[in-house]
Amino acid sequence: MYKRVPGTRDILPEEVYSWQWIEEIARGILRNYAYQEIRTPVIEEASLFSRGLGEFAEIVQKQMFLIKNKEDTYALRPEGTASIVRAYIENNLDKIKKFSKFYYFGPMFRLERPQKGRLRQFHHIGAEAIGSIDPNIDIEVISLADTLLRSWGVNGYQIQINTLGCPEDKKKLVQLLEKELKDEAAALCQECQVRLNKNVLRILDCKNEACKQITAKLKLQDKHLCADCQEHFKEVRSGLDGLGVKYEVARHLVRGLDYYTRTVFEVKHGQLGAQDALGAGGRYDNLVEELGGPKVACVGFAFGVERLMLVTQPAAKTTGGLTAYLVTLGKEASREGRILLDQLRKNGIPCETDYEGRSLKGAMRAANELGVKLVLLLGEDELKKNVVMVKDMAAGSQEEVSRQELIEKLKEKLVQNSKRKDQN
Ligand SMILES: [Zn+2]
Ligand SMILES: [Zn+2]
């Protein structure tokens, strides 16, 4: 028997309703904020990610799903941003309009040792605003993330924000950290000893206890920031205050990818454990140029959908919105039923029938389990009279309806039904 690849999951129909709920809410809100959906391939040239995310980024060094053939090395995308930037450049979207806002849903892949809470295929919902340096767009993106969380009914999350500054400031921050941490090198974990010379920022989010203690002692200020970057961050904070978005400034927050500049943020949730973020994002003002495009500034974020699932209660599971169930008695009625069912479906009435040879009682039970509002009965009598017996499950009533009027009658009944529901 075949099994799933470790670190992947089947999302079965019962759970898919929750996914659709999350996506539908997100689509509505993203539309309100004027973001447009973009869909890019899950496979890209591997160098897009090593170039974009940084050669020493953990994702690139340890977690890339590589596919090699004779000439090329491809990678299953580990995140969405680099692909979207690639698409923006390749399709000359900057020539159409310099400023664009995109959102995306989809699977991402990381070659991790499968363990609790870590999947090799997981899903992101993300948004990217490309082409503006205006702090208003940082503010919009963070408040959009906040609005999404509220709309999904997530409680108890914290938004942490920080600024890395422009590339010059970031260099200063790196030098500062290298200097401060050099004397502590021996006490750092093995990985951080390597990071000290290659990716020192990464030490700040090391999960090792010893490293955490050392970095907690660092007095990180905003001294590495130039006046412009300080002003930008001030504007972002006061904008968030003005919108009532709650956040805390976390000077240790750096994010692990090379492309981040200036504003970075992370959404934490207690239920996920101290280290796990629900989502994260920030500015990446040089990535487009770095990947061969024009010099345009960007900001974006992504949420992990599997993690969201752990902290939301999606709306009650539905039956998938089935309205009617057709029960036929006898061969003749079954044949006629096929036509009836087809008419109903083509007229926008979601319905189902029995394909398992159930008895009348069994079919009624099946209808009940599906939670349909109406059961349509078609037997010899009804065929003769050219009618259908319509049982209203909620009202407990039934009536004969002529075939000519059936569609109209059913639509009426559904309107009544939903009105009755509203009154209750
Ligand atoms: Zn700066
Ligand atoms: Zn460490």
Strand order of the largest sheet: 1-5-6-11-10-9-7-8
Count every beta strand, where a strand is a DSSP E run of 2 or more residues: 16
Mean pLDDT: 91
CATH domain class name of the largest domain: Alpha Beta
Which range does the strand content fall in? Answer: 15-25%
> Can you name the CATH architecture of the largest domain?
2-Layer Sandwich
Q: Remind me, CATH topology of the largest domain?
A: BirA Bifunctional Protein, domain 2
| Rg over alpha carbons | 28 Å
Q: Describe the global form.
A: elongated
- Residue stretches low in confidence (pLDDT < 50, at least 5 long) are none
Number of domains: 2
Largest sheet properties = 8 strands, mixed
Distance between the termini: 50 Å
Output the number of helix runs.
16
Explained architecture:
By secondary structure, this protein is an alpha+beta fold. It has two domains: 240 residues, BirA Bifunctional Protein, domain 2; 100 residues, Rossmann fold. The protein contains 16 helices and 16 strands. Strands 1-5-6-11-10-9-7-8 form an eight-stranded mixed beta sheet, with helices on both faces. Strands 13-12-14-15-16 form a five-stranded mixed beta sheet, with helices on both faces. A hairpin with a 4-residue loop joins strand 15 and strand 16. The radius of gyration is 28 Å and the shape is elongated. The two termini are 50 Å apart. The mean pLDDT is 91. The site of one zinc ion has 7 residues, from helix 8.
